[in-house]
């Protein structure tokens, strides 16, 4: 399937019902399932961008490694994104603004196709809307040194099916160790909300042959 055919498929598919929690739950540590069951009324709004682009003969997406800091997502792998600001007007604009700020891709070079299922992140009290877009002009990536330790270019085939899904003990912010599923990709441990988003994306992609 060509890149254009894949983009056409996703544009149509994202308008249909999504797998949602049924698939998200596969990537949540069993001891924390109850925390993700409901979204509190006072949860903060945020969004991220799953950006697709063609590289060589494959389709890639961009992930970022957060730097070490005094916060719940220190040193974690995520998509570009962040908290909603009133000036954004929409969560789509939040995802585009944060992508520009964090890795330097202007919104004029990105076309959004739709969104995946929103999900709640209990440690930071954010409800996240993952948007899916593509670009034909990656240009030069310029990471924000305060928010991005490393840019990760990942072939989406690494996330298809159960490929590269493993389990391990991870120490979380309160010092507790939990057994969690994760993606082992290019020596990065991709878990939590990012893994949940990727698992739903993978589930949708399984409906076609990439």
Brief write-up:
Helix content is 20%, strand content 32%.
List keywords for this structure.
210 residues, eight-stranded mixed beta sheet, 32% strand, three-stranded antiparallel beta sheet, 20% helix, alpha+beta
Distance between the termini: 5 Å
Count, helices: 4
Q: Identify low-pLDDT runs.
A: none
Question: What portion of the residues fall into strands of 2 or more residues?
Answer: 25-35%
Q: What would the principal axes of the Cα set say about the shape?
A: globular
Q: Helical proportion? A: 10-25%
What number is the mean pLDDT? 93
Written as H for each helix and E for each strand, in order along the chain, the element string is HHEEEEHEEEEEEEH
Overall structural class, as computed from helix and strand content, comes to alpha+beta
Describe the biggest sheet?
Answer: 8 strands, mixed
Secondary structure: number of strands: 11
Q: What would you report as the Rg, rounded to the nearest angstrom?
A: 16 Å
Question: How would you characterize this protein structure?
Answer:
By secondary structure, the chain is α+β, with helices and mostly antiparallel strands. It contains four helices and eleven strands. The chain has helices spanning 3-13, 21-24, 91-103, 192-205; strands at 44-55, 58-65, 77-78, 81-83, 111-115, 119-121, 126-134, 150-155, 165-171, 177-185, 188-190. The strands form two sheets. Strands 1, 2, 3, 4, 5, 6, 7 and 8 form an eight-stranded mixed beta sheet that branches.
Topology:
Blueprint: H1 3-13, H2 21-24, E1 44-55, E2 58-65, E3 77-78, E4 81-83, H3 91-103, E5 111-115, E6 119-121, E7 126-134, E8 150-155, E9 165-171, E10 177-185, E11 188-190, H4 192-205
Parallel strand pairs: 1-7
Antiparallel strand pairs: 1-2, 1-4, 2-3, 2-8, 5-7, 6-7, 9-10, 10-11
């Amino acid at each position: 399937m060509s890149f254009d055919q894949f983009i056409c498929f996703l544009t149509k598919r994202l308008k249909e019902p999504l797998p949602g929690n049924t698939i998200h739950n596969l990537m949540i540590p069993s001891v924390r399932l109850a925390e993700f069951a409901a979204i509190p009324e006072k949860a903060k709004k945020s969004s991220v961008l799953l950006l697709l682009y063609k590289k060589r003969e494959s389709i890639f997406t961009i992930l970022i490694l957060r730097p070490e800091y005094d916060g719940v997502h220190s040193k974690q792998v995520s998509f570009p994104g962040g908290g909603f600001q009133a000036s954004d007007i929409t969560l789509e604009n939040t995802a585009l603004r944060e992508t520009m700020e964090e890795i330097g891709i202007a919104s004029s070079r990105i076309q959004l196709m739709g969104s995946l299922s929103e999900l709640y992140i209990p440690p930071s009290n954010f409800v996240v809307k993952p948007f899916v877009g593509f670009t034909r002009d990656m240009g030069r990536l310029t990471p924000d040194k305060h928010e991005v330790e490393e840019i990760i270019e990942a072939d989406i085939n690494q996330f298809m099916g159960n490929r590269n899904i493993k389990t391990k003990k991870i120490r979380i912010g309160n010092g507790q160790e939990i057994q969690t599923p994760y993606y082992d990709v290019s020596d990065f441990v991709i878990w939590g909300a990012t893994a949940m988003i990727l698992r739903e994306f993978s589930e949708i992609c399984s409906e076609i042959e990439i």
